[in-house]
Amino acid sequence: xxxxxxxxxxxxxxxxxxxxxxxxxxxxxxxxxxSLQVAIDTSDIKNGMTVQIDGEPYKVLSFSxxxxxxxxxxxxxxxxxxxxxxTIENTYxxxxxxxxxMIEKKDVIFSYEDGQNFFFMxxxxxxxxxxxxxxxxxxxxxxxxxxxLTLVEFNDKIIEVxxxxxxxxxxxxxEPNVKGNTAQGYTKPATLDCGAxxxxxxxxxxxxxxxxxxxxxxxxxxxxx
Length: 225
What we know:
Blueprint: H1 2-19, E1 39-41, E2 50-53, E3 56-66, E4 74-81, E5 87-93, E6 97-100, E7 103-113, E8 117-122, E9 128-132, H2 133-136, E10 148-154, E11 157-162, E12 167-174, E13 187-192, E14 197-201, E15 209-213, E16 218-223
Antiparallel strand pairs: 1-6, 2-3, 2-6, 3-4, 4-5, 7-8, 7-10, 8-9, 10-11, 12-13, 12-15, 13-14, 15-16
């Protein structure tokens, strides 16, 4: 009887210990808006791409490919240095290598400006982010209170403000539409609710909504809402 009891206790002990065998922890992938640094060549170049040259971020503004009767084609690329603001233009042999810049994009909402900084609210953390007026640059003309846009970071520093394009605005000031003026191609200046002034077709009036290419600063079409 004593032996049977000992066997029973041993079985219970083994069963209990096996119930508490630790399980491997679950791992969850975290979403991020960061771009990885990868190697590319001239065939991968696209407008708007950000590459790293001599440790600094450069944005591709435009590029052209020149085919030659003899030898490999050449690619001429116009860059903007996103830290200094200057532009450069270089010509590369076909297949020359680049590295994309490790940048992070942050969705924000414009709040206000005080003459020295523009202030935005991080859409995810709701924290306030201050950006120097020099970095905002001419993008300031497209900002409206409560408007959504994107901040670009490089090495934990804001280097660029990206406004949505195209974007819809309201005409707040322009010459009145003259009845009977049907001249083809007639345009006039118009001030938008963001503060920018663009050329619009002569038939448009104050209060009407227009879609604008903010990259080029040009009218695209009237918006009927």
